[in-house]
Amino acid sequence: MTDVEAPRPKYAQIAEMLRSRIKRGDYPPGSNLPSEDHLARELGVSRVTVNRAVSVLRAAGDVTVKRGSGTVVRSLPKIVRDAEARYAARDEGTGAGEVEARKLNLRPRTDYLEIGQTAAPAEVAQALDIAEGQPVLVRRRVLYANDEPTQMADSYYPWELVKDSAELLQPEAGVGGSLTRLAELGYPPVRFAEDIDVRLPTPEEHQVLQIEATQPVFRIWRVTYSHDRRPIEICDHVMPGHLWTLHYGWRDEASNTRRDQ
Amino acid sequence: MTDVEAPRPKYAQIAEMLRSRIKRGDYPPGSNLPSEDHLARELGVSRVTVNRAVSVLRAAGDVTVKRGSGTVVRSLPKIVRDAEARYAARDEGTGAGEVEARKLNLRPRTDYLEIGQTAAPAEVAQALDIAEGQPVLVRRRVLYANDEPTQMADSYYPWELVKDSAELLQPEAGVGGSLTRLAELGYPPVRFAEDIDVRLPTPEEHQVLQIEATQPVFRIWRVTYSHDRRPIEICDHVMPGHLWTLHYGWRDEASNTRRDQ
């Protein structure tokens, strides 16, 4: 048995109390937190303690400090990303990128940073099973919900596969999104694999995603395979950790095997 | 198009250089980083800059500061957690908890903090579809690889289901682990669902997992279902983010549907 007791410092208790007030709706989404002076007086603690407590909330993404408007309660709800469901949804005509925002009645928007031919970076080339520097189509974009950035996503396709698809070379990839285009080109997606890491944002991500340098991001690296295990798409996603819950579901393989016997 | 250029501060460049030296093996796993004074002289920058660079590596989990032994390079490799494969492995007699460590030839160890009856916390009760406070079996443990903590895992089972299983009430749950015991009790696992969040560690996690208060953790909440969508197990995992890559794979449902037609 290990001793797992740890003292609970004052600022952590205050942070917990402010968080439960936010959850309860005392400080609604998009509203300002009371000033630190006000909170210090109300709670009978020092301003330094309140300041440390607010730092905890900032680091956790519960509040954001906006220049000129003080400390603001996060306005986006936690977004659930259901890996399987989002691709299945393309049969209803929706690209995967905006599925989650629509489900929550948030207003989705996609800004395209780059669409065109580029030389495959080492990691992409390896995953696509082509030589480094071979031409690929890159589609770099930033997704928003209610004008708040929710993810950066860079997709890569082997150039030979997609060079004749006018739709993949323009921002709107058409009904059902890029996966539907790949199917039309003779490469239907058959299997997906995602690797998830967590890390601190790079300076670029920190700026584009409007998060603190201390707020962790999810990095999801997806490979889409067609028949014969052929990789047809890489997607490299970077998402503010506090905004997302990632959901995966699967049937038990051991019990499947037994059923088949 | 958005302007995504950002200046790259000196300390970030130094952090990147130190990281590539670690990757190259100049500073091998478990060894000490040269002193900050030494690095400042070698690289021709101020000690303050080196100190900020080392802070970046600490936050990313590349190095740990150990009292009395200076700044030490992380000794565990990145561990891949393949969700589907780890449960399938139980047919070979291995419980899921130690699969990844064994695969990397690391020495696994499990410390049990608590095994016994408890009142179901609200979140657990809801997921198990029982009333809050109803009795559940809890199995709380900390997993290690080469004596370094890699995860905390708390599993919960409806008491009525497991009360007659002597093995589930003791540390070693027997060949194939707890899921094999549930199958023997008439509740084979049929489907798994995992929700992944990222957040900063609580004081307890920070202490047990031996990580910095600023290092994000993965929180994986798994529900295991038997036939008739009956929830039979909850597992609440907390894992240092820098140690793990989470892997999920699945077949495309839209293409499955089309195949079935």
What is the overall silhouette of chain A? elongated
- How far the N terminus sits from the C terminus of chain A, by CA atoms, comes to 43 Å
Strand content of chain A: 25-35%
Helix content of chain A: 25-40%
Largest sheet data of chain A: 6 strands, antiparallel
What does this molecule look like?
The structure is a homodimer of 261-residue chains. With 261 residues, chain A is an alpha+beta fold. Chain A folds into two domains: 10-73, Winged helix-like DNA-binding domain superfamily/Winged helix DNA-binding domain (Arc Repressor Mutant, subunit A, Orthogonal Bundle); 79-247, Chorismate lyase. Chain A contains ten helices and ten strands. Chain A has a six-stranded antiparallel beta sheet. The first copy, chain A, has a two-stranded antiparallel ribbon with strand order 1-2. The first copy, chain A, has a two-stranded parallel ribbon with strand order 3-10. In chain A, a hairpin with a 3-residue loop joins strand 1 (63-66) and strand 2 (70-73). The radius of gyration of chain A is 22 Å and the shape is elongated. Chains A and B meet through helix 3, helix 4, strand 4, strand 7 and helix 9 of A and helix 3, helix 4, strand 4, strand 7 and helix 9 of B. Chains A, B: Keywords: DNA-binding, Transcription, Transcription regulation. Chains A, B: This is GntR family transcriptional regulator.
